[in-house]
Structures are given as C-alpha cells and as structure tokens.
Amino acid sequence: MTRKPTFAEALVPLLGMVLLLGVGYGKYGLPIQFLLIVAAFIAAIIAKRCGYTWQDMITGIADKIQSSLPSLLVMVCVGAMIASWMISGTIPLLIYYGIKIIDPQFLFVTAFFVTAVISTFTGTSFGSAGTAGVAIMGIAIALGVPLEIAAGAVISGAVFGDKLSPLSDTTMLAPIAAGTDLYAHIKHMLYTTGAATITCAIVFTTVGLNMDVSTMTNPETVQAILTNLEQLYNFNLLLLLPPVLIFWGAYTKKPTIPMLLLASIIAIAMGMYFQGFDLKTALQAFVNGFKVTMIPGVADIKVAKPIITLLNRGGLMGMMSTVLLVFCAFAFAGIFSKTGCIEVVLERIISSIKSVGQLVTATVGSTLFMSIVTGSSYLAILIPGEMFRDLYKKFGLEPKNLSRTLEDAGTCAVPIVPWSVAGTYMATTLGVPTTSYMPWAILCYSSMIFAIIFGYTGFGIAKIKK
C-alpha cells in the first residue's frame, strides 16, 4: 500500500540533490553523473518508505525518458548534422566569412540577434545553436573573444525564438497547459520577452564596446586561420544548401528528425563531390565525429592549432555522454515524481499565496523548481500549469498571464540547468560548460525577473473583463 509523502520526506531527496551538486559538482568538480545516481538512491529510500516497489520506480524513470525521447533523438541527429556540415564545408564557410565580416566588438550582440532570428523561423533552440551557434563559436575562437560571453549570447538568442515562435513545441504547449489561445499567448509574451531582449541588446553591446580587442585579436593568427580554411576547403555558395533546406523544412512544418537527416545526407554528398572525401571517411565522421586529419591532402598543409579547436566536433557518438547524463538525471526525476514529492512541495507553495505578485512569483519558483528537479521544459510547463490554472482565475487573471509566466521560467530556465537535456546539449555543442555561460545567458533569467516585477507592479498583467 502506497502513501503520500510528508512535506519533510518530500524535501529530503531535493535537499540531498542540491547539496550533492552544490558541493560535489560545484566545489570539488566530481562527476555529475555519479552525484545524480546518489541523489536517485536517496529518492529511492523515500519511495520505499512510502510503499513504492522497485518496479514502480522503474516505471517512473521510464516515463521520464519516454517523454523526452524526441528531444534526445533531435540532439543526437544535430550532433551528426554538425559533423556532416564540417565534411561539406558549410560550417567552415560560415566561419570564414564571419571572421571577415563581423567586428569583434559587435560579435556578442550579433550572435544574439542572428540566433534569435534563426530560432524564431525554425522554432528550435537546438537547431539554432547547433548551426549558427557553432559557426559563431568558431568565429569567437578565431577572434580570441571570451567564449563564455559568446555562448551566453547564442543561448539567449536561441531561447528567444524558442519562446516566441509559433513553430516551437514549448510555445504551443504553454497555452494548452494554461487554457488560452496560441497567438494571444505569443502577443502577451512580448511584455517580458521584449524587456529581456532590450536588456540583452544593451548588455552585449556595452560589453563588446568596452572590450579591448587589441589584446585579444592577433592579426597573424586570424590570417593563418583564414589561409588554412582556404587551403582545406573549396568554398562556393552551394554549400549553403543544407541550412536552406533546414529553414524550408521548418517553414513548411516538415518533421524535424527526417529533415535533419536529409540535410546531413546532402552535406555528405557535397563533401564527397566538392571536398574530395571518400564515403567511408565521411560516414566515420558522421558516427564518431569530424577530425581535421580526415580532410584529403591535410598532410601537406601546416594546420594552425585554432583550426583543430574550430573544426573537431560533432558526430552521433559525440552526444552519447550527454545522453548518459540525461539518463542519470531522469533516474532521480522519475523516482521523485512517481512518489508524489513534486505535488507535495507545490501544494505547500500554493497554500501561502495572498496577492498577484506572490502568485506570479510562486509560478516562477514552482516552474524553476520543476526545471531543476526534472530537467524537462515540458514537465516544467505542464505540471505547474495544471496546478495554478484555477488559482489565476480566482485572482481574476486571464490565462495568458499563466502561459506567459510558464514560458518565462520553464523554457528559459532549462538551458542553464547543467543536467537538463537543453543544458547538456548547449554545453556539448558550444564547447562551454553550463556553469561558465550561465551568467551570460541573460535572457534566460531576466525573463523571470521581469515576470516577477510585472506581477508586483501590475504592468502587463491582463485581468478578466467582467
């Protein structure tokens, strides 16, 4: 016979995870996978006390993995696509002209707006970061600017589109969870997302203009990189066909994974035709990741060290460590959710709400709590949305206030959670640890801050018309 955990029992696994990750990972740098497994063991002890069997816990873990399987598959496919675009020369082409065109002092604000536009048109932060984001990071490496700021700008832009694009799954999910209309939800998000966007533009422009590029950009190194890219690849405009295909697929709402694989196959064919790769080498890169040493004729070229940092990346196997981390996180999240600990904690939060400001703050806190515990933006939106829906009506607020707040916290928080699907993907793809880019992922936390400010001031809060 199972029972509902007490509030103290519900807090034990949560505090255990926070302590393990805060001290073990934050201070001592212990492997995060092991720490998450220990946290899952603590959650299992509480589950056993509440009468749950091992089979119940396995079911909870399997449910979590199943719910995020589409995102994991997209992540793996993007890893393979990055390697194939290295083979074709697509990403090197973007890096080459990016180095030539972009002023280092405007790199951060450019990175923000470019990824924002791409993610808005495609509806995916993963695709935006995995394509334009990778190219921008390559430009940042070549120009010698701080990578953590560049990564933060890329993620801020990628999340912008993930929030506002009608093609985004979270943008479609939030109004469903709150009980409102999709376009009313998008229009209402312009209040908080608009304020956060202005903040990002000001910060990234100011940081760039106050950066002493003379100490970072070595003209000889930059020229060596450009020369190497010219020697290693045959550039032409046809190399832009794979990203154009991705844009077309997003615009026409084609299935994501088939389009990613099709763009990868076309890129491999282009790499064989334009760059001289043989099929075996191209497929090895597709699976195991691209290496500069795979390029035909590279033995006769003196390759600059930054080129290796720029180009060695991607592949199906390159994402496997990220997938393992997600599985370890779901071991904890699955057991913690199955026992009902999440509901117990959220019920305690809801019982103390007395004003609109407290309601919005509680929604942000609960959604952030779900993001940290489950690592899933879907669950971070769905569960608080279900629990807070009637409370917003009780306070006389339109459901679009709830849907906006769910996205301000749910969609935005997950990329800065190190063990989440989005957090591990961004860190792996951009090559910068989550804890390093976190302070510069400005849109991710400024959206939450503005949501709370507007909740207390009443600005941008829509009330039900009598």
Brief synopsis:
This protein has 466 residues and is mainly α. Helix content is 74%, strand content 0%. The protein contains 22 helices and no strands.
Q: Roughly how many Å apart are the termini?
A: 47 Å
Helical content (DSSP H or I, runs of 4+): over 70%
Number of beta strands: 0
Order of helices and strands: HHHHHHHHHHHHHHHHHHHHHH
Question: How many DSSP helices?
Answer: 22
What radius of gyration results from the CA coordinates?
23 Å
Question: What is the mean pLDDT?
Answer: 86
Strand-residue proportion:
under 5%
Structural class: mainly alpha
Biggest sheet: strands, sense, closure?
A: none
Overall shape: it is: globular
Low-confidence stretches: none
Descriptive labels:
22 helices; 466 residues; mainly alpha; single chain; 74% helix; 0% strand
Structure description:
This protein has a domain at 69-319. The protein is mainly alpha-helical and 466 residues long. The relative contact order is 0.16. It is globular. It has 22 helices and no strands. The N and C termini lie far apart (47 Å). The model has no long low-confidence stretch (mean pLDDT 86).
